[in-house]
Amino acid sequence: DTGVSQNPRHKITKRGQNVTFRCDPISEHNRLYWYRQTLGQGPEFLTYFQNEAQLEKSRLLSDRFSAERPKGSFSTLEIQRTEQGDSAMYLCASSLGQGERQPQHFGDGTRLSIL
Amino acid sequence: GNSVTQMEGPVTLSEEAFLTINCTYTATGYPSLFWYVQYPGEGLQLLLKATKADDKGSNKGFEATYRKETTSFHLEKGSVQVSDSAVYFCALSDRSGTYKYIFGTGTRLKVLA
Hints:
A: about 120 residues, mainly beta, about 0% helix, B: about 110 residues, six-stranded mixed sheet
């Protein structure tokens, strides 16, 4: 079963460092989403790709955050100059096709801890 | 804007008890509605969905009915098991074009043997 895969599972880094996370969606899925989940909260939308095009970015995505999806396959999320407030679980999800009825499939997330 | 409101947890039940987790939403139009479950250290797994009014989603003994008149999508199960202990999230699919999800804050369920 090739579900959504995220790496690394855990990342511990010092404040001010840069970090990059990777998401491999389900192979035929053209839609890819990044969410951020803090302790005790539901996931919050960060950004959306349709194939290789980044079509929406949340206001949560400050200029220290950048995401890419080259060739419409895997995606990376980079955080520059990390801050304490960036500590969270970063979730990637993918879905297939058009319309809202196709559910999103989530990876297990990358947990980021800033020292 | 769109939003989802869930009952606060934690909810603690004995095995075989009846479960209800309330979820109400605010949205433009008629979004699709979802329940996801999250086990410790894992991502979210789709539990069930409903895409139009009066639809009933069901899976693994869980059910939820899309009620347009009360803008609700309450999750129910007739007899919970210890293995159902997890955090449950209600979500709607935004119809802005990206179909991103708007989630509730989650409800933690603990089932005691």
